[in-house]
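Weekly structure sync - notes
Attendees: PM, LS, DV (DV joined late)
Agenda: review two folding runs queued last week.

Item 1: First target. Sequence and structure tokens pasted below for the record.
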Amino acid sequence: MEAGIVGLPNVGKSTLFNALTEAGAEASNYPFCTIEPNVGIVNVPDPDLDVLRAHIETEKVIPATTKIVDIAGLVKGASEGAGLGNKFLSHIRDVDAILQVVRCFEDGDVTHVDGSVDAIRDVETIETELMLADLQVVENSLQKAKKQSRTGDKQAQRYLAVLEKCYECLSEGKPIRSMSIDDPEDRKLLRSLSLISAKRVLYIANVNEDEVESGNAEMAKLQAYAAERNSEVIPVCAKIESELSELEPGERQEMLESLGMTEPVLNKIIRGVYHLLGLQSYYTAGPKEIRAWTVRQGSTAPQAAGVIHGDFERGFIRANIYSIADLTAHKTEHAIKEAGKLRVEGKEYVMRPGDVCHFLFNV
């Protein structure tokens, strides 16, 4: 699962990517500095792992990870080939969710592709291009679907109905994510189209260093815009986060304290990406390793076991589970069992955040 960092040129995408991944991707003050997407794997900050490590002796701790992709800056007319055009759009089509960096700071030394700072205009520029690209896909698919539906094929007729709903939505200037489709089969057909505006979005407001806590007028407009669309805005000063990522742990903590921060904002962004993708963690813990495993929200115990190995899912018998809260309260796994807090769960159990699991299986 991966999230793509997108935005207009010169809004701080690559600077943010460098801070997130410490990958050293080039960041310069000119459009299309990023041409091919940079890709980084980042650890998901997780205080539950610290709790597990404090109570269980182990050789190593392995956090969950997620993939971040830094995609080239988009300009108006991209859906018609302007800038990097179709290349940009194909890259964004490949990711599972969108991190849209929006410039909310004034700086005469950093040019803006449209000549001025306007958060809503910038967001709408990108949203429009994504919807126009989707409209092309839907229109092309509609022609074929209409021919197939005339044969009386039920599946073709169903597909046509989904396409017509998409066409109506996009023609009204609304992204596909705003549509309501309840039927699981229709949702599956919609996913097969890989429409860009169907992807969930997390907005990153790039502000000056003295505005991360207080915000500013542009960020306030962006927050109102996002709230109307059931999305979230995370304020960040990409420049500060980049500087923090280059420091040693001790120096980083000193800088955080001097800024009145408890942790880098990047931690919140990474956790936000993780949840935006519909993911959660469960844990296995023992003397060899403590590890966070990634599952989709709503996964059952056998599906979670299958993340470790397919045989675990095929031969699933049961799972012995306790929570992080149980470990905090009782200190050891033995004490948890003695207190009757070790749960035995079967195939229908739906995983909860903070579950620590031992799976029993037989193949």
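Item 2: Second target, run right after the first with the same settings.
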Amino acid sequence: MKTTFIILSLLMLGIGASAQTGGKALSDVNPQFNTSTEASRTSTAYGDVAGFIDNGVYTYRGIPYAYADRFEEPRAPKAWSGVRSSRWWGKASQQPPYDGVTSDEISFFFHSNMGDLDDHCQFLNVWTPGINPKGKEGKQRPVMVWLHGGGFQAGSSQELPVYNGRNLAAKGDVVVVSVNHRLNCIGFLDLSAFGEKYAHTGNLGMLDIVAALKWVKENIAYFGGDPNNVTIFGQSGGGGKVSTLACMPVAKGLFNKAMVMSGSFSLANKQENARKVGLLTAEYLGLDAKNIDKIKTIPYSDLWKAAYKAQKEVNANQSGFGRVAWGPVAGESNLPEVPFRNGSELQSADIPFIIGSTLNEFSGAQEDKMVRAAAISQATVNFNHKKAPVWLYRFNYQVPSLDGQFHADHSNDIGFFFNNVANCPFITGATPAGINLGETMSSYLLNFVRTGNPNGKGLPEWKTFSPDTEATMIFNVPKCEMKNKD
């Protein structure tokens, strides 16, 4: 009965062989979209995978890069036999119900779709122009690893359509990777007070990302990528993740270039305060040192309610940097110091950076000052080491979607760097001028990924940053241009 239902459903959708297709396979009818297993089959260290080919770009979704039970460190994924279908998104991290979308217009603007949520969320996605080991220039392709926003609390690699890596891969002959990892209390609740087995729980979300970068190092050649030419980039919380990785000893050597978009914040917690949240969470759940392992099986809804209550109570007695937010914990071996403070970034001083923000960020129609100042501060720290260049930008384009009410807000630059302006008109507006701006911004990014310098033929010169000039590339229409501080 079940088989009959599936067949009837496929026929109703026009997917099966029918008079409309003349009995041909879908790949014969539409050669630009090939779902054949053998056409996209490639290897990983843990088993073969198959995705689909979208207009020449090989696309793989939901590939496991690690495995971890709750509050355990990530380990290698379980190997499989045969060919694993990797055509749909993997699970995203557990997160509390999201009530931030409060209007029809906001929902339309972002087209958000978080995906299925689970404790086991160590999955990544790959877009590549070819699975042969050599690109157009006769060598392996540069690799770009995208880290999503949402702070360290929410979001996923598939949440927003502007995160789609297909156009970047096609335009730049690069391999694009995006990553899901643990968030909020399952990624950053510090239970280290309960012994060695919980020593690193305050940074599990970041250790997931490190595991993903190690997977890239080990496997990306199977997807035509160069494991020795990896750029990490992210926006908002994703930018904070980039900055944190730059200061984690365990991440050293796993990437070669970095880009921070509206994420130049020191979001790490002091471990002494993070531990208080962990202890109080256990207390609210009726747990102590004798039965703490039960925390691994408590329903997520109960866990996060207790954790958020504990965080609120601890913060009631703290101010400024002493307050605790979901994010990395500084003071343990994986993150000895707060990112970009007290020389913590020295291990990455030789890595080129692009750092930027948007004109309006969270300020509506007003010019943003706070996020811009943080970007300048981080760029200054990098500059002072004098070991690698840094470029600063600001996105000023007032996106016209929905009567222009979203201005050049926080996250509005993502679709332009991803060259997704035309296919995401709900957020970008997709005007001819906007599409040209996306071509320009994505070209700068692809040049940086390939050579470590965003400049290239046909583009206005993007001068490197220095504190005396605060030289900044302004992305706008009708043209992009450099501007120094007033």
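Discussion on item 2: Residues 432-451 form the longest helix (20 residues).
Action: LS to circulate a short write-up before next sync.
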